[in-house]
Write a structure and sequence with these properties.
Elements: E1 2-5, E2 8-11, E3 16-22, E4 32-37, E5 44-49, E6 56-58, E7 66-71, E8 76-81, E9 90-96, E10 112-113, E11 117-122
Parallel strand pairs: 2-11
Antiparallel strand pairs: 1-3, 3-8, 4-5, 4-9, 5-6, 7-8, 9-10, 9-11
Amino acid sequence: QVVESGGGLVQAGGSLRLSCAASEFTFSNYAMSWVRQTPGKGLEWVASINWSGYLTSYSDSVKGRFTISRDNSKNTLFLQMTSLTSEDTAVYYCAVDRTYFHGTGSYTPPIFKGQGTQVTVAS
């Protein structure tokens, strides 16, 4: 399973760091992603990282503002979010991927994802 944390209410222009604690599977074997969802919309892919952390990819909407990283020794995935805007308000999910997504084409639905953590950006 994966459990997200770190969401909350932040002012526009502010920062948040999301964490995702993984357990009951071999975390270092899997590429991981962050995806988000707003009411009435489908899942939106945000960022991906390969198993080692060497490769990362981002959606155009967050590129340059968000940073995905991982610590395989602690079975933890992170998403550092800066320069937040109201458009970033969503439930953020940590997702376990079948393969690493380079950011082109369509994001393949994950093997599973967590329960999510709410991020609300006040303008």
